[in-house]
Design brief:
By secondary structure, the protein is mainly alpha-helical. It folds into 2 domains: 33 residues, no CATH class; 43 residues, no CATH class. The protein is 33% helix and 8% strand. The protein is built from 2 helices and 2 strands. It has a two-stranded antiparallel sheet with strand order 1-2. Helix 1 crosses helix 2. It is globular. It starts with 8 loop residues before the first strand and ends in a 10-residue tail after the last helix. It comes from Oerskovia douganii. This is Mechanosensitive ion channel protein MscS.
Length: 78
């Protein structure tokens, strides 16, 4: 691992609808912003869950993704 990335989370470039650029390095607890287009039916479930739980949509989404990716760290965000 490159020394400048030691102790950091490295996010590889990937197809996101625009040309891939480069890897980015973040602290493990640093927030990463990304844009995603999802079907309205899934968005509805996401927003309904956020509304019912009283949590921000971003927290619900992070938790869902964490579980789906079998993160094992528990809740992704507060």
């Amino acid at each position: 691992m490159d020394e400048r990335h030691e102790g950091r989370i490295v996010i590889r470039s990937a197809r996101t609808g625009r040309p891939a650029s480069h890897e980015r390095a973040y602290k493990p607890d640093e927030l990463v912003r990304f844009d995603a287009r999802i079907p309205a039916t899934i968005a509805q479930r996401l927003y309904d869950t956020a509304h019912e739980s009283g949590l921000p949509v971003t927290v619900v989404l992070a938790n869902v993704l964490s579980r789906a990716l079998d993160d094992g760290t528990g809740a992704a965000m507060g």
